[in-house]
């Protein structure tokens, strides 16, 4: 009838009503305004300014069911007026609730004025804004008003997130019709054209196309950047919203890199595709390395890398070769990248095959540098469900929603450095309360924590605020005229700033839990990054429920976790005889019970508290041992009274035994609650009680626990169990027995948490513990209450009815006492003949086993076959054909600690401490029981060297009992473990044999060699039995006045007892002895920090990049000294001969062995200051004067000496080994002992051959 005016006629009135009732209609993507035509009117007189729409109104009901529900109504809307996006519903005593309106089949409209019929580009009106409940402005209109979009307006924070992530984490099973609600089909509206995209894209090649999203299903994205397909190879693309400002940096078939600017920071996003083709792989990774190397700000790199980091990320198939270059590992180390981790399914790709051909790998991931992690500390990565694809999508959220959780109070270590904190604690602790000593202590703790929180908020303040304020003052003071008063003012500001910087470092160090680094640089960045990584590693972003659904909301995760632990700690009925079938006879004597039940005095309580680590994580009271150690003169009396009250009355206040449960992941990315280890955080005062009980119980364990249990029993070596198991498995392979062998590996899941309190009481009573001690134990175990910490937030307390806590010092010892019942029950069945022991040979001992058919055992016992990578005591149980592959786990463990971001942030001294304290201890358990291949050892050394240098790129018996192992030939079919032990014979050949310690005369003893009347040696008899040298040595031995039983002693140990530690030191002294310069011994034992020691080592080794060194080695620069311009800048000249640097400290001299401790500290700081002074003058920067440098040096030396104090020395003194003197000399060793009863002086003189000359 006219432009865009149509008339419809119907043959039947029912058809007309049906079409009219099914409004609204769309025609070619446009909205159709449908009106009934009254015949008396012309079509120009019909009102087309209104139309009918279906509107979804958010339903307000119960909080648990109102999400994703709505009321659907059909209304007539004025097309000339703006649409309503929704409204805030006021509620009494609650925040206003946003009721959003979503319109179905909404046509193209203007998001600026919300009027249907014209585009945003043609609108001249201002954008309409709304106020949310937090008084913040946000856009009123956007794509969220459409029914097809599940988002809420950007200013609405109170609305719960939608369930889209949950639906994608758990994809529907393709049985019957596809669930449309789980993954809705989204139809977008016309968006902007190509001309609106960033002009940078015009410079790209022809294969790079920026397209209008138009009819594609990509809403709500308004921009699309894609590479066209090439043959069967897929392209790459990136969508982004028009509200985001980006700048394209790189665009090709393997990579899209864009620069993003937002309110947080400007950062770079890199989408990467690693080609599976080896010929293209090197080029793609080289381009990625070059791009990341040019970025100095925060960046995030994600995508399909087509590489696995290690063998754990591959399941099925042949696996890659260990000699193949791993570009991803190089990326992590060389650029200091941090793996973001993930939540959800472990693998991101599968080949969609079945059976033996089924392969799964983790190829998709996200990594970022430390700057990006610090800018987005709460980021999360979710592996969604794979729908119609072999790859799993990644959902990376830079700022995921987080519901409010109460954070418990924590005493900060930095408060101890402020004298005002002492006054606050002293004043608040003086309050007294009526009640028991335990009740009085709990009330004082609560009153003090409240006072500390108030003081911290109103007085102490935030570290970063003080640092920023002092930095501005320092900058202004340094810009003034350089006079002596100004220099002194700058030094005072610098000193105060250093104090706050040290407090900031101590704050983040306490939060990071990096206990291996005791002293060192003020590396706040390292501790801050460690804290962020540790929190993200322990965070629970998604967890698999019992029904197989993924829970991603904290609102759902918290009750699920609490419910699981409530069920775990719920007691089950047990039927246990009171006498335990006579398995455990009483073993505790009355004398032992008297010792156990002694009331501790104040000194014992203080020593127990001071023996704990200062910054251990506190319990619900928030007070770590550092608090009690620092303010013991204030709180010590009440603490001691409360502890003594427990031992006197046998009652423990429940508030003292409140406990937090923190969930520590057992695996890198846990998915179920069983993959978390529940660690209990007990209050410090309770741990003092528990420690006292442990100190009394531990000496008795050796007489209570059978030899088959080695854990936690003093004097036993748990690695022996691993050797026995390996030998048993090896003997099974060699022996041919009808039916074969079956070994059951029993893993006691949640063993601590399932211990019955009634069973524990019966066990303690059968061992013979008196009722008083038993009551103390049960009181510690049964008065506990738990609160689970989920992502740092607390939950409601609940009370268990069984279980002992991991984290309680008592728990390991109570558990092995309970496990002893199982051990003795097996022994009883063996003696009765119900069980038989398997022997590795006829003369060897028998080990218990069960022989039956494998299928029957699996059906009856409901057991599954152990996987090839089964673990026993931290090491693989079944050796593989490839020994290199078998020990690959050692390399993975070491490289997981030697990460690139640690290498970038730690100094040389930090590298040294990390290697000595952490890395070198990782392979020790495996080295003690396995013969690790040399190739693995070389790779371990290579990883350690790379971390240090940080380079840049352009039991049955195996021998005859009476014959002796040292003289027996190894068996031909010996296992690899025993062959490794055999290879140690040349190393430990120095050990004394029984023959060497015996005398050939059968009845002759030492007393026969002594003339008893004169207490002197029988020289004639000695001359007859020994050679002249031995006779002289024996005659110099003083004869004791009292008679003592003769015994063999181990001279390398002060106690005369053999130990593996002392034997290792002897081996190192004899086999691995390396001549050492006394200057180096002095350096490593001196007082300065390891950072300064490393710097002095670089000076003595002449490895500093001086001008002369750069000129000789690299042929660049002028070798002349830039300070005096009078000589070549060598190491000796710069530090000891240059007249300019001599002005800093005129008394600096060459290293000498006679340097005193305080002088070595001064010299180390002086040398470092000279190097920094030279660099400040050479490189552009603020001008530095010698006077200011000297003042800063004095402050640093005084600060260092004052900070370490008399009790802060980190030096450890090892037992000295005797070394012979030079040829022709006599060495005299002396010792003295002085007491009130007298004094003793002893001396021994030895020749260069070690023979005693005189004693």
TrEMBL record:
Key word Metal-binding present: yes
Organism: Fagus sylvatica
Entry's Gene Ontology molecular function annotations: nucleic acid binding; zinc ion binding
This protein's record includes keyword Signal: no
Protein name in the entry: Reverse transcriptase domain-containing protein
Native organism taxonomy: Eukaryota, Viridiplantae, Streptophyta, Embryophyta, Tracheophyta
Domain CCHC-type: 110-123
Sorted UniProt keywords: Metal-binding, Zinc, Zinc-finger
Domain annotation Reverse transcriptase: ranges: 645-913
Pfam family name, one: RVT_1
InterPro entries: DNA/RNA_pol_sf, Endo/exonu/phosph_ase_sf, Retrotransposon-Effector_Assoc, RT_dom, RVT-Znf, Zn_knuckle_CX2CX4HX4C, Znf_CCHC
């Amino acid at each position: 009838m006219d432009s865009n005016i149509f008339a419809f006629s119907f043959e039947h009135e029912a058809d007309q009503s049906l079409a009219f009732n099914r409004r609204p209609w769309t025609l070619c993507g446009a909205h159709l305004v449908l009106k009934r035509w009254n015949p008396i009117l012309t079509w120009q007189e019909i009102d087309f300014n209104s139309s009918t729409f279906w509107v979804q109104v958010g339903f307000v009901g119960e909080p648990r069911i109102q999400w994703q529900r709505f009321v659907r109504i059909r209304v007539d809307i004025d097309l000339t007026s703006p649409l309503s996006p929704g409204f805030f519903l006021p509620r009494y005593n609650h925040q206003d609730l946003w009721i959003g309106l979503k319109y179905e089949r909404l046509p193209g409209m203007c998001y600026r004025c919300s009027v249907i019929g014209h585009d945003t580009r043609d609108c001249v009106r201002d954008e309409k804004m709304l106020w949310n409940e937090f008084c913040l402005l946000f856009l009123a209109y956007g794509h969220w008003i459409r029914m097809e979009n599940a988002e809420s307006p950007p200013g609405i924070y109170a609305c719960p997130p939608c369930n889209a992530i949950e639906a994608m984490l758990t994809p529907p099973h393709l049985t019957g019709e596809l669930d449309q609600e789980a993954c809705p089909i989204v139809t977008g509206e016309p968006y902007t054209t190509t001309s609106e995209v960033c002009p940078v894209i015009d410079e790209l090649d022809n294969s790079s196309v920026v397209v209008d999203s138009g009819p594609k299903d990509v809403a709500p994205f308004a921009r699309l950047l894609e590479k066209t397909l090439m043959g069967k190879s897929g392209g790459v693309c990136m969508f982004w919203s028009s509200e985001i400002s980006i700048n394209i940096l790189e665009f090709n078939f393997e990579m899209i890199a864009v620069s993003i600017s937002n309110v947080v920071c400007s950062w770079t996003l890199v989408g990467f595709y690693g080609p599976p083709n080896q010929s293209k792989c090197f080029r793609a990774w080289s381009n990625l390395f070059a791009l990341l190397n040019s970025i100095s700000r925060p960046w995030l790199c994600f995508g399909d890398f087509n590489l696995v980091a290690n063998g754990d990320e591959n399941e099925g198939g042949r696996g890659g070769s260990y000699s193949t270059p791993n570009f991803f590992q190089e990326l992590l180390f060389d650029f200091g990248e941090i793996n973001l981790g993930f939540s959800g399914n472990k693998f991101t790709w599968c080949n969609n095959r079945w059976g033996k051909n089924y392969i799964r790998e983790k190829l998709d991931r996200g990594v970022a540098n430390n700057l990006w992690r610090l800018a987005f500390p709460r980021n999360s990565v979710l592996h969604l469900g794979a729908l119609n694809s072999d790859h799993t999508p990644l959902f990376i959220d830079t700022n995921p929603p987080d519901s409010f959780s109460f954070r418990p109070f924590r005493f900060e270590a930095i408060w101890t450095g402020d004298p005002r904190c002492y006054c606050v604690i002293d004043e608040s602790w003086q309050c007294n309360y009526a009640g028991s000593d335990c009740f009085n202590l709990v009330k004082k703790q609560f009153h003090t924590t409240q006072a500390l929180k108030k003081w911290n908020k109103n007085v102490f303040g935030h570290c970063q605020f003080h640092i920023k304020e002092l930095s501005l003052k320092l900058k202004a003071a340094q810009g003034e005229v350089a006079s002596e008063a100004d220099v002194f003012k700058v030094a005072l500001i610098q000193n105060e700033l250093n104090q706050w910087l040290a407090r900031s470092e101590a704050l983040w160090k306490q939060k990071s839990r990096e206990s291996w680094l005791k002293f060192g640089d003020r590396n706040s960045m390292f501790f801050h990054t460690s804290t962020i990584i540790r929190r993200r590693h322990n965070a629970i972003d998604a967890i698999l429920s019992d029904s197989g659904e993924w829970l991603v909301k904290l609102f759902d995760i918290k009750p699920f976790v609490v419910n699981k632990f409530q069920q775990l700690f719920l007691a089950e009925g047990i039927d246990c005889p009171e006498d335990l079938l006579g398995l455990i006879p009483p073993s505790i004597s009355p004398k032992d019970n008297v010792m156990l039940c002694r009331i501790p005095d104040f000194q014992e309580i203080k020593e127990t508290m001071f023996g704990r680590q200062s910054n251990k994580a506190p319990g619900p009271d928030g007070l770590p041992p550092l608090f009690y150690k620092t303010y013991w003169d204030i709180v010590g009396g009440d603490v001691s009274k409360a502890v003594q009250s427990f031992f006197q009355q046998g009652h423990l206040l429940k508030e003292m035994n409140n406990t937090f449960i923190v969930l520590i992941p057992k695996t890198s990315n846990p998915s179920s609650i069983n993959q978390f280890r529940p660690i209990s955080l007990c209050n410090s005062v309770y741990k003092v009680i528990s420690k006292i009980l442990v100190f009394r119980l531990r000496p008795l364990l050796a007489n209570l626990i059978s030899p088959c249990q080695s854990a936690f029993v003093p004097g036993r070596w748990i690695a022996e169990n691993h050797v026995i198991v390996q030998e048993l498995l090896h003997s099974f392979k060699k022996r041919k027995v009808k039916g074969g062998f079956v070994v059951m590996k029993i893993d006691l899941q949640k063993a601590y948490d399932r211990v019955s309190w009634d069973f524990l009481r019966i066990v303690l009573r059968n061992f013979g513990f008196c009722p008083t001690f038993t009551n103390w134990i049960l009181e510690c175990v049964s008065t506990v209450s738990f609160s689970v910490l989920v992502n740092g937030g607390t939950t409601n307390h609940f009370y268990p009815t069984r279980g002992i806590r991991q984290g309680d010092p008592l728990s390991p010892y109570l558990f092995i006492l309970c496990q002893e019942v199982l051990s003795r029950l097996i022994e009883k069945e063996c003696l009765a003949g119900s069980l038989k022991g398997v022997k590795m040979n006829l003369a060897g001992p028998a080990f218990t086993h069960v022989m039956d058919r494998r299928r029957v055992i699996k059906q009856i016992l409901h057991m599954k076959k152990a996987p090839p990578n089964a673990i026993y005591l931290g090491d693989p149980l079944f050796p593989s054909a490839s020994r290199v592959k078998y020990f690959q786990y050692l390399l993975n463990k070491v490289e997981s600690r030697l990460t690139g971001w640690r290498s970038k942030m730690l100094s040389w001294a930090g590298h040294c401490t990390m290697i000595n304290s952490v890395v070198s201890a990782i392979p020790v358990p495996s080295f003690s029981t396995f013969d690790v291949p040399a190739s693995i050892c070389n790779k371990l050394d290579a990883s350690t060297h790379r971390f240090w240098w940080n380079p840049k790129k352009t039991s049955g018996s195996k021998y005859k009992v009476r014959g002796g192992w040292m003289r027996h030939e190894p068996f031909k079919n010996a296992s690899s473990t025993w062959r490794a032990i055999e290879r140690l014979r040349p190393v430990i050949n120095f050990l004394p044999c029984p023959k060497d310690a015996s005398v050939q005369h059968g009845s002759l003893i030492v007393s026969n060699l002594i003339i008893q009347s004169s207490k002197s040696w029988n020289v004639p008899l000695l001359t007859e039995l020994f050679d002249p040298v031995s006779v002289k040595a024996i005659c110099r031995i003083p004869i004791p006045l009292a008679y003592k039983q003769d015994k063999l002693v181990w001279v390398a140990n002060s106690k005369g007892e053999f130990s593996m530690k002392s034997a290792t030191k002897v081996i190192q002294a004899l086999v691995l002895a390396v001549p050492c310069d006394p200057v180096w011994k002095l350096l490593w034992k001196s007082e300065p920090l390891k950072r300064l020691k490393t710097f002095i080592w670089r000076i003595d080794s002449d490895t500093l990049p001086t001008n002369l060194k750069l000129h000789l080695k690299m042929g660049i620069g002028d070798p002349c000294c830039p300070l005096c311009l009078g000589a070549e800048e060598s190491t000796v000249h710069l530090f000891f001969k240059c007249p300019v640097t001599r002005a800093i400290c005129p008394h600096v001299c060459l290293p000498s062995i006679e340097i005193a401790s305080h002088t070595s500290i001064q010299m180390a700081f002086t040398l470092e200051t000279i190097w920094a002074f030279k660099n400040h003058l050479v490189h552009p920067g603020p001008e530095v004067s010698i006077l200011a440098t000297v003042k800063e040096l004095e402050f640093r030396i005084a600060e260092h000496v004052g900070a370490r104090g008399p009790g802060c020395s980190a030096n450890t003194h090892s037992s000295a080994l005797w070394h012979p003197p030079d040829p022709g000399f006599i060495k005299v060793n002396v010792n003295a002992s002085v007491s009130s009863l007298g004094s003793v002086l002893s001396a021994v003189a030895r020749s260069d051959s070690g023979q005693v000359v005189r004693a």
